[in-house]
Structure formats: C-alpha cells, structure tokens
Amino acid sequence: MSQASLTDDDLFGEAANEMREDVESSLADARDALPDAESIWETDADNVLGALNGLKSALETGDAEEHLRDAKKWYTMGERADAFDDAEDLADEIETLESTIGDIEQAGDQVGDLTQTIPGLRSTLQSADDEDEE
C-alpha cells in the first residue's frame, strides 16, 4: 500500500495498533521488572537482620513503576482517542500491576521498619540480660 493510498482511518487504525502494542510492551516490561517470587522467599542470611536486609533488597520494584507509568500514559491516550476496540484486558492488567506494586512497596516499608527496630530491640534485650546477670 503506497503512502498516497492511506486514508485517515487507515492511519488511525495503524496508530491505534501501535499504541496498544506500546501499552502491552510496557506492561510486559513492568511485570519483568517485579521481584522474582523465589528472591523474596529464600534467604542465605546468618541472622534476622541479614534476612530482613536481604528481603528489603529483594522487594525493590526496579523500573516496574516507570514501565507501568508508560503503559498508563499510552492507555489513557488510546482511551481518550477511542482508539481501542476492546481495552478491558489492558485496564485489568494495569489495575493488577498497580495493586501488585503497591503490595510490594507496602511490604518493603514494613520490612524497613523492622530493619530499623530489630537492632534496638536486640540491644535492649542484651542490656536486660546483662542486668539479670549482675
């Protein structure tokens, strides 16, 4: 098909397909950037603080948020332009990834809190043990 024979509808359809592919690609990149399930489950730490620090590192979402942002940006553009025939699957995937990233971030915050609390708690308990020995 030559450039001269492309109609506005043809161009719009092509752009809509490319936009959907961009959304799908960004969603795939976001999923790929999420932590691996085994990395948050397995540990080789020698103590609780080491396990917590390892878990906190494993709970990093990397570039997942940026990829999700790109997907949402192109999805929003496509929706507003009424470019997608059926985009419910994209909306569902965006919602699922938002929720997953939120859960990971919340878990990371909780682990971070424990990482800060445990050393002080250990020190307090050691002091109590020392007092008992005296």
UniProtKB/TrEMBL annotation:
Pfam families given in the database record: DUF5790 (PF19103)
InterPro entries linked to this entry: DUF5790 (IPR043808)
Positions in coiled-coil regions: 80-107
Region (Disordered): 1-27
Keyword Coiled coil: yes
Feature: compositional bias, Basic and acidic residues: 17-27
Keywords assigned: Coiled coil
This protein's name: Uncharacterized protein
Species, as recorded: Halovivax ruber (strain DSM 18193 / JCM 13892 / XH-70)
Lineage: Archaea, Methanobacteriati, Methanobacteriota, Stenosarchaea group, Halobacteria
